[in-house]
Every structure is written in structure tokens, then in C-alpha cells.
């Protein structure tokens, strides 16, 4: 069976989005309405793989920078998106067609492929992992994520229990969902600037835009006291996973245990029916540096390790 590689353009938007919605490892971040909010920053080079009957077998959210094809750099992850119907043999053919396509381009020298973490999939989806082995792709980065498997039961450490109970005793401190992200964004921006000299990946206008497009997928929860936001979280929600896209805690919030109260509320009251609660990574320097303090806080809520892998495929 031959696999044809088709570069995405806007005429394929409906087909792309429908495929992503029905994929066994899809995510709303792969929807074109999400991907294109920062189209001015990335040169999109997303690809679609179709069989001889023009049926879509897989899609690859991607961008190109200089002579490298990347799993889209504007997304946390984004490897090959496939359906339940796509077989392992077909995925092998997809990867070979991807290599052939890159070679024929005459300008691409390599492909950086970042896998979709396995806990995001609705059905087993490691076909790409086997294909990467077969084509001798090199593992170049491994980040460590911390995930609570809510459906399997979990427990807090003594320290986290103490902090949550301390916060609950502050009667004027409460946790609510907020439709207006502005106050939280002020806190988030301040914390990131003071601690890391960085800014949120999304501007407040961008997150409001994305919220308007995916109102049930992007949610904000804050701990407030006397009208002031002391801590909060922005959650990206999929069918099985609630992911902490942003977390922030003020100095006063740290003293009161405000962020721990937010997380406790999310785990026990909001997302108790989800399968996984994903705190995200605790690594930097392409996975070589582990923030042990940050990791301990996440593991204090019962989270345990899942890796997020990046591979390089050299094509010339």
C-alpha cells in the first residue's frame, strides 16, 4: 500500500479537524482553531498521510524552521495523530513516507518528533514508538511529567495534608472557577517575572481568545481572599486528562497554603471522574536537570512519573 504525504492548507481544515476529533490520541490543541492563534510565530508545515483511496491514516502537527521539520514547536506535544483503524503496518509506512518526503524536499535535514504522552491516548497508541525504533530514530530528550491516576486511588503526603488542612481553616479563603482570567494573569505574570524572568506563553488576549473557542476545555480556578487572587490554576481538559497548563501562588498564598487548596479542590471536587491529573514536567535542559523541590510538591499529591520523549530522525 502506498502512502501519500499531503501538506496541510486551509482547504483541508474541516477534514483535519474531524480527523483529530475522532483520533484515538487527539487533543484540542491539534484543532486548527487552536494551532493558528500563533500562526505569525511559526511557519506551519503540518502534514497529512493518506492511502490509495484518499483516506486519512494520520496527521502530523508540524512547523519548519531553517532546515528542520519539528513536531509543532508551538504545542506542548504533538506527534503522529492516528485513528483506531490505522494499523501498525500502516504507521510503519507513514514513517517511511515521511522520510521519503523529507528527502525529496531537498532542504530538510532532520525531523524532531515529540511523542504524545501515552496517558493522553484513549486507546493503545504506541505504533509510532515501534516505528521510531525501526528507523533508528535517536532519543534526544526525555522530560519527566508527574501524573495522578485518579481512577486508581492516591494519597497525599503528610506535608500536603497539613498544608491543605491549614488553608481550609482560613474561612475567608475560598476557591472558585473564574470566567475572567485577567486577575489570575496579573498574578501569574508577576510570579513568572520575579522568579524566572519570563512571561506566560500566552498573552491575556490570546488565552481569552482560546477560551472563547474552547470554553469547556480551558478553565481557570482561583483561591481568593477579600477579592484578591492569592493562587490559581489554568486547566487544559481532555476526555481523560486534566492538565495544569499554568499554576501560580503569591507570597501570601504560600503562607496560607492557597495553591494546595486549589489543587485539592480540583482533584477531589472538579476532576474526580477523570482518569488522570497531569501536573506537567519538572525538568529543564532537555530533561537533564530535575527540579527536585517542584517534583516533591507534585508527588506530595500522589503524582508519579510519566516520561515525555523527543526523537531526532536524520534524513541527510
CATH class of the largest domain: Alpha Beta
Uncertain segments of ≥5 residues (pLDDT<50)? none
**Dominant shape:** elongated
Spatial strand arrangement across the major sheet: 4-5-7-16-8-13-12-11-10-9
The helix-strand sequence is EHHEEEEEHEHEHEHHEEEHHEEEHE
Helix tally? 10
CATH architecture of the largest domain: 3-Layer(aba) Sandwich
> How far apart are the termini?
25 Å
The helix-and-strand class reads alpha+beta
Task: Report the strand count.
Answer: 16
Whole-number average pLDDT? Answer: 96
Strand-residue proportion: 25-35%
CATH topology category name of the largest domain? Aminopeptidase
Corresponding CATH superfamily of the largest domain: Gcn5-related N-acetyltransferase (GNAT)
Explain what the structure shows.
The chain is 33% helix and 30% strand. The chain has 316 residues and is α+β, with helices and mostly antiparallel strands. The chain folds into 2 domains: 4-136, Aminopeptidase (3-Layer(aba) Sandwich); 147-307, Gcn5-related N-acetyltransferase (GNAT) (Aminopeptidase). The strands form 3 sheets. It has a 10-stranded mixed beta sheet. A 4-stranded antiparallel beta sheet has the order 1-2-3-6, sandwiched between helices. Strand 4 and strand 5 (68-71) form a beta hairpin. Helix 3 (88-105) packs across helix 4 and helix 5 (158-168) packs across helix 9 (258-270). The model has no long low-confidence stretch (mean pLDDT 96).
Amino acid at each position: 500500500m502506498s502512502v501519500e504525504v499531503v501538506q496541510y492548507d486551509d482547504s483541508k481544515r474541516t477534514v483535519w479537524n474531524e480527523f483529530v476529533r475522532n483520533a484515538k490520541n487527539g487533543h484540542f490543541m491539534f484543532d486548527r482553531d487552536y494551532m493558528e492563534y500563533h500562526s505569525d510565530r511559526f511557519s506551519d508545515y503540518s502534514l497529512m498521510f493518506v492511502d490509495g483511496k484518499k483516506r486519512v491514516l494520520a496527521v502530523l502537527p508540524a512547523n519548519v524552521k531553517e532546515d528542520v521539520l519539528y513536531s509543532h514547536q508551538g504545542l506542548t506535544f504533538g506527534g503522529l495523530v492516528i485513528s483506531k483503524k490505522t494499523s501498525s503496518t500502516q504507521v510503519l509506512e507513514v514513517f517511511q513516507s515521511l522520510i521519503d518526503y523529507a528527502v525529496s524536499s531537498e532542504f530538510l535535514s532532520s525531523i524532531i518528533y515529540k511523542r504524545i504522552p501515552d496517558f493522553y491516548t484513549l486507546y493503545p497508541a504506541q505504533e509510532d514508538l515501534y516505528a521510531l525504533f525501526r528507523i533508528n530514530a535517536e532519543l534526544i530528550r526525555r522530560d519527566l511529567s508527574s501524573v495522578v491516576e485518579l481512577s486508581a486511588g492516591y494519597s497525599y503526603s503528610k506535608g500536603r495534608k497539613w498544608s491543605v488542612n491549614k488553608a481550609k481553616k482560613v474561612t475567608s479563603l475560598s476557591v472558585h472557577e473564574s470566567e475572567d482570567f485577567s486577575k489570575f494573569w496579573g498574578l501569574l505574570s508577576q510570579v513568572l517575572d520575579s522568579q524566572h524572568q519570563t512571561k506566560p506563553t500566552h498573552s491575556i488576549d490570546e488565552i481569552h481568545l482560546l477560551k472563547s473557542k474552547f470554553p469547556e476545555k480551558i478553565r481557570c480556578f482561583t483561591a481568593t481572599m477579600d477579592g484578591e487572587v492569592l493562587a490559581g490554576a489554568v486547566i487544559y481538559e481532555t476526555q481523560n486528562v486534566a492538565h495544569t497548563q499554568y499554576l501560580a501562588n503569591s507570597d501570601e498564598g504560600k503562607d496560607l497554603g492557597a495553591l494546595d487548596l486549589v489543587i485539592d479542590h480540583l482533584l477531589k471536587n472538579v476532576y474526580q471522574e477523570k482518569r488522570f491529573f497531569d501536573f506537567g514536567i519538572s525538568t529543564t535542559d532537555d530533561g537533564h536537570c530535575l527540579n527536585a523541590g517542584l517534583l516533591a510538591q507534585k508527588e506530595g499529591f500522589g503524582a508519579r512519573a510519566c516520561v515525555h520523549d523527543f526523537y531526532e530522525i536524520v534524513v541527510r
